[in-house]
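User: tokens in, sequence out, please.
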């Protein structure tokens, strides 16, 4: 994944957070944020913090 894809996913998540009601907002946030966080940590470990 490129950094632009990550930024688009985070922007989509924030827009959905404004639109959706509370239970769905929490579930969708976790479904998007957990894999993104794992990917970012793995990328930093693999390539270093550039």
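Assistant: Sequence out:
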């Amino acid at each position: 994944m490129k950094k632009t894809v990550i930024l688009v996913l985070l922007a989509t998540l924030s827009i959905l957070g404004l639109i959706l009601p509370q239970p769905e907002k929490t579930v969708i946030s976790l479904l998007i944020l957990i894999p993104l966080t794992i990917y970012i940590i793995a990328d930093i470990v693999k390539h270093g913090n550039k």
